[in-house]
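pls read this stuff:
=====
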Amino acid sequence: MKIKVPRHIAIIMDGNGRWAQKKGKTRIFGHQAGFKAVKKTVKFALQNKIKILTLYTFSTENQKRPQIEIIALLKLFLFALKNEVKHLNKYNIRLKVIGDLTYFHEELKFYIYNAEKTTLKNNGLVLNIAANYGGKWDIVEGVKKIVSDVQKGCLSIEQIKEEIFSQYLSTNHILPVDLVIRTGGEKRISNFLLWQIVYSELYFTDVLWPDFNASEFKNAINFFSTRQRRFGEVVKN
């Protein structure tokens, strides 16, 4: 049987903290190991010609975590932006950060915009980093933009359809999500891409994120390949 490779894969990268605790280390150590797993995952996506990879790195709810952990996460994000852009260009990867960026400090925002600008013309893998992102936030922001355009006379209420609404979301530049992978054993969506994954296939694995590797990624794709995607229709045999 020919393996169907999803065009767009979104991953909820869960389990860094528990991975570290099992090793008697701090949660920050787990996030550092998780960053290494991200690099391996991007490499696998390139090798398997996946068009879009969206990674859930920091949710709007993560703001409730201890301040020391948040600071460490943001430092790790800044480090990645400063040091990985050259590799993104080398492998023709376009970077896009989606989420409420107003939460971040000015230096981090500068490097986000710089990385996006530097990789804008790359036409290989699209790598979306969902940072300070929430599905509810995304939908509310989309509603605000639509209301603004209606008030300006740029859009009528009658014109608002699902396709139009999708254009007002942070993911308006990408294809719908085919497959959602969640590591760490939990079986929930956690406010991730709520609008975008209505017909995505869902793959849950007990593997903690730092241990996620090519073998487990292949398992997820093999699972996707067995699914009959009907999108609400009845498929005749």
About this structure: The longest strand covers residues 52-59. The two ends are 17 Å apart (CA to CA). The chain has a mean pLDDT of 94.
